[in-house]
Fold this sequence. Notes:
Layout: H1 2-32, H2 34-45, H3 48-65, H4 68-75, H5 84-102, H6 106-127, H7 132-136, E1 141-144, H8 146-156, E2 172-176, H9 181-212, H10 217-250, H11 257-267, H12 269-291, H13 296-309, H14 312-329, H15 338-362
Antiparallel strand pairs: 1-2
Helix pairs in contact: 1-2, 1-9, 1-10, 1-12, 2-6, 3-5, 3-8, 4-5, 5-8, 9-10, 10-11, 10-12, 13-15
Amino acid sequence: MGRRTAIRALIVAGTVLAVLAIVSLWVSRQALETDTWARTSTELLEEEAVQAAVANLLVDQLYANVDVAAELEAALPPRADVLAEPAAGALRRAAVEVADQALDRPLVQRAWERANRRAHETLVDVVEGGGGVVATEGGVVTLDLRELLAEVGERTGLSVGLADRLPEGTATIEILRADQLSAVQTGGRLLRPLAFVLTAAMLACLGAAVWLARGRRRETVRAAGFALVAAGLVTLVVRELLGGVVVDELAVTAANEPVVTAVWGVGTSLLADIAWASIAYGILIVAGAWLAGPARWAVEIRRTLAPYLADPWVTYGVVAAVVVLVLLWGPTEGTRRVLPTLVLLALLVAGVETLRRQVRREVPAPEPRVPEHA
């Protein structure tokens, strides 16, 4: 009775730790990996609502730093000077459309990605303790969009060579202030090992439950698979519910709601990917446990596979082919990283070898034929 209670407690603890591990993996990779940050920023700019918001920001900054009416006045004939002001207002609406279209172009999107990559590299320097340079520059980490602003200025024809004339601080979005430095550095130091520790603790709990369950290990392995499925589903449900709260809190006006919704969706897409990966791994574990079970269909499948499983070259040749195909496909975050891939590979080999041994016990190899003497 005590052992069963301990096994159930370990399964429950493993499920909770799996949810925490999923969240910590997402936060760690999203916040501390520059490639992930840059990729997410590019996906954000592909959202129509975000494009529109960025276009409006750039045009607002353009008009704040360029005397558009004066530029038009200089270009118009003397008698048409009075048209400069109304033309500047009309041109503003057209400039937003031009900026929006420009943000669809690969050249401008690469400039956006470069700006995000530079900002994140500075942020990581701060997190890892190299905040001295940032502090001397006002203690602010910013996303510098001056390159995009100059591109918009040239595309609208309002200002050529704008990049050289823009003052510091133009078209920038604040990411980190000096008074947040200590908290960010502390959080960064905790985040890096936390994802590994929680994942290892989750695997240890589920592994300990299987080890304790002598005589019921197949059922416990199946329960561990269901635990991973449950963790993924809980994460997806919480993401959906929390998304509604975040949008309601941050969308000050109805006009802002599409932008906040898009940012939340793209920003947490990696969280959803990790959750779905947990569900997929769990389903594979449950399927493997059922395949090793006493159900008639499972027994028939094992008997059919027996001749192939008896030959390790055939068995592991197929396993190797499947592994190569999965690695080339890279369907989950885990299959695109070295350490998770090695862990998954070890678990796969352990499962296949366990099934081979079970089949050998159930379907003994046929006795070799003794040739009859004439």
